[in-house]
Amino acid sequence: MHLVPEHDDTAAATPVVNRATAAKASGHLPPRRRRGLLFAVLVAGVTLALSGCQGKLSDGFLPNAVSDSGDRVTDLWVGSWIAVLAVGFITLGLILYAAIRFRKRKGDEGLPVQLRYNVPVEMLYTVVPVMMVAVFFYYTARDEAALTDTSKKPDVTISVVAKQWSWDFNYVDSNVHESGIHVNPSEPGAIAKMPTLYVPVNKRVEFVLNSRDVIHSFWVPSFMTKLDMLPGKTNILQIVPNQTGVFQGKCAELCGAYHSQMLFMVHIVSQADYDAEMKRLAAIGQTGFIPVDASREKMVPADAAKIPAQVRTGGN
Ligand SMILES: [Cu+2]
């Protein structure tokens, strides 16, 4: 049998100063300098990554929220980060304390006294993590229940149908629709060609979400919430947009070759501007609906019932 030693004892025995000089002579950085350089690169990388974030530190670098879900999601996100950083620092502190306090000292021979089956300590590191998970679970479940609550009566209902690789918007109350086509965002005038979703500000908007083909996900980052769109199933999401402006929407579920180009624009506008847009869509002949039933997958009956009947079949 051929045994390979873990350490090269001759190298370990060489004084550090000689290794550093040797490293310099050979054109390589000495290990300590190399570690310093690596650390500097890491700090620069993290700084660069964080500078790409839109938000502020107090919001956990989340985008500026423009819906009633914003505060709840931001609080959960920031609270979770504070909790995990606190746990992380305490754990790191205990590791460093143990490593320094119980390090091998000059003259120490063999192993120290070995302890095992320390019941109080084992109870502690079983009970504390279980309690931490329970706290995370409580807040997550509480917020998820609020975010997915659809019991309130909406002011406006919009049926959103995802398809490879664009979106159809049926404005249920106004009997008009917009049908999108796949747009490459790098082509000239791409934003004007993208499908645009209009929603009135400070009104409860219900999105009835369906898919024509594969699994997609309805995501407007500034709404601070998103929901999957499953073939044959209906998901419902309610939000109250609370700030006017133009925002981006996208698909958040890998859905094929052009998933990354499955984009749309969102205009949060006043009720008057919303009504004007509904009139404009009617005037250009986009009345009725693009039927949800014209999809690859047959609807599960219970989920078909969640879609307004005229939207399933196409209305007009
Ligand atoms: Cu998609």
**Helical residue percent band:** 25-40%
Global shape: elongated
Task: List low-confidence stretches.
Answer: 1-25
Counted up, domains total: 2
Q: What is the CATH architecture annotation of the largest domain?
A: Sandwich
What is the strand tally? 10
Tell me which ligands are bound. Answer: copper (II) ion
CATH fold-level topology of the largest domain: Immunoglobulin-like
Portion in beta strands: 15-25%
**Structural class, judged by helices and strands?**
alpha+beta
Main sheet overview: 5 strands, mixed
State the CATH class of the largest domain.
Mainly Beta
CATH homologous superfamily of the largest domain?
A: Cupredoxins -  blue copper proteins
The number of distinct helices, counting runs of at least 4 residues, comes to 9
Using the CA coordinates, give the radius of gyration.
29 Å
- The span between the termini is 83 Å
The average pLDDT score comes to 87
